[in-house]
Design brief:
Layout (H helix, E strand, L loop, with lengths): L2 H9 L2 H13 L1 H14 L1 H5 L3 H19 L7 H5 L1 H14 L7 H17 L8 H29 L7 H5 L2 H40 L23 H11 L7 E3 H7 L3 E3 L3 E3 L8 E9 L2
Antiparallel strand pairs: 1-4, 2-4, 3-4
Helix pairs in contact: 1-11, 2-5, 3-9, 5-7, 7-8, 8-9, 9-11
Length: 293
């Protein structure tokens, strides 16, 4: 497996990064918004309006740029998360006029984009525990998309129970949805954090392996930050060890390859065969007798 193939499997191909970005981030609010609009206005009327196609298009555009910037030195997560709502606002405000800004779900799109973009700006090893904490919080905020859109739908269809927060949470079903949504977001956040830590460990291991040859000259893999030592491992080393183990007292054995390379410079005794662990066939070896001449 080449180093490039390992990198692709760990970071994902451009296509994979795009789909993960689309469904894991950029399209989440648009999907919730489409469901909100369908339930409020009806499917037949909504699909004839430009709204669903516009919001899906801007989520694709946002996912494209964020996935392209993901592997660069400056991922631009904050600015990238504002692409969708910014383009959507320009297009829809031109169609609907000032009433576009009076719709609470349009403002919610901006609110979630700003918060999620800000949280994602703190990704990276340099932020340490703060990055881990904010990653969990980010998933809680994502779960909040469902809760906010549910609340807005209740405000539009059941205004009596949404005159105040007290009236809203007086309904036990509202309490259930709110708590279940936030706890689910917390659970997903912890799960995502664990998966990310394992992925980071794999990436760190891959980066170390790039520094080593096929024989894997180890530093931190074969030591620690305080105690470092170097070693060579592989089939050649194992074979040499097996040959050495078959040598008698004060005897030096040479392999077939060494014998062929140094036959003119040294004298060797007659060839004999030795059994070696891990080898299907015996190894041909030659005892070293001294320098030629």
């Amino acid at each position: 497996m080449t180093v490039q193939l390992i990198d692709i499997r760990l970071t994902g191909s451009p296509r994979t990064r795009f789909w993960l970005e689309l469904f894991g981030n950029s399209a989440q609010f648009p999907i919730a918004n489409i469901l909100f609009e369908v339930l409020r206005e009806g499917l037949a009327g909504y699909v004839r309006a430009p709204d669903p196609y516009t919001i899906l298009l801007v989520s694709v555009v946002q996912a494209y740029w964020l996935s392209r910037w993901q592997t660069t030195a400056h991922p631009r997560r904050f600015i990238g998360n504002l692409i969708g709502p910014a383009v959507y606002t320009v297009i829809e405000a031109a169609i609907e006029g000032p009433r576009f800004f009076s719709a609470p779900h349009h403002l919610a799109y901006w609110g979630f984009a700003l918060v999620i973009g800000a949280l994602q700006s703190f990704r990276g090893d340099r932020f340490g525990w703060l990055a881990s904490t904010l990653r969990v919080l980010e998933d809680v905020v994502r779960a909040g998309i469902l809760l906010v859109m549910y609340t807005l739908y209740e405000m539009a269809t059941n205004p009596v129970q949404t005159t105040s927060w007290g009236a809203f949470f007086a309904d036990s079903s509202h309490q259930f949805v709110s708590l279940a949504t936030l706890l689910l977001g917390l659970s997903l956040g912890l799960s995502s954090l664990t998966a990310q830590r394992y992925l980071d460990l794999l990436r760190q291991t891959s980066a170390r392996l790039k520094m080593y040859s096929e024989w894997l000259l180890g530093r931190d893999l074969l030591g620690s930050a305080e105690v470092k030592f170097y070693d060579v491992i592989g089939d050649t080393v194992n074979t040499a060890k097996r040959i050495e183990g078959n040598a008698g007292p004060a005897e030096v054995l040479a392999s077939q390859a060494i014998h062929g390379s140094l036959a003119e410079a040294f004298r060797f005794g007659p060839m004999r065969e030795v059994e070696a662990k891990g080898k299907d066939l015996p190894l041909a070896v030659y005892p070293l007798e001294g320098a030629a001449g």
